[in-house]
Design goal:
six-stranded parallel sheet, alpha/beta, Rossmann fold, two-stranded antiparallel ribbon, about 170 residues
């Protein structure tokens, strides 16, 4: 019995930084060209505070979902790709993204996240994921898509059509 062919999957690491929003734009452009689905992944983890393992905020899953949703809004406005899934997972970001890479054809990250060390060419999570991922990794630099990629994706998007409100999916993989 033949199984339906699975769509290619692009995983994007989201932390709310401008760099991760650019990574989402890359994913949107490539997904429209490759007819791929996108998994926008935000990870959160417990911290040790006063000797106890505890979340840094009252509801870390909700905060992570808000960060992911806001990044999608900043990246796409009302024109988010149709096959876009928000995924919220508990765990260290690099470990979560490497795990997600097992089912992906491409993983896209921003070159710098929300960490505090300015001037690094690549963030610690991006470096760890690029080294350990089970699929190809694209590390997005700069602030905008290359004009030729943006134009190609826009042309292709007109052939596919805009996203409908009920098309988006959300998934909490805690």
């Amino acid at each position: 019995m033949n199984q339906p062919e699975k769509k290619p999957r692009i995983v994007v690491g989201i932390d709310g930084s401008p760099s991760s929003i650019l990574a989402l734009r890359w994913a949107g452009a490539l997904a429209s060209l490759l007819e791929a689905e996108i998994r926008a992944v935000t990870a959160w983890e417990f911290e040790i505070l006063a000797g106890h393992l505890t979340p840094a905020v009252a509801n870390p899953d909700r905060v992570a979902r808000d960060v992911c949703s806001e990044a999608v809004s900043k990246a796409f406005g009302a024109a988010a790709p149709q096959a876009l899934e928000l995924v919220i997972r508990q765990g260290p970001a690099a470990k979560v993204l490497v795990d997600e890479s097992r089912q992906a054809q491409l993983l896209i990250l921003g070159s710098r996240g929300c960490g505090g060390l300015e001037g690094l060419l690549i963030g610690a999570v991006s470096a760890a994921v690029a080294e350990q991922a089970k699929c190809s990794v694209l590390v997005a630099h700069g602030t905008e898509l290359p004009p030729s990629l943006a134009a190609a994706a826009e042309t292709n998007r007109h052939h596919i059509g805009p996203r409908t409100p009920e098309a988006g999916r959300n998934h909490a993989g805690v």
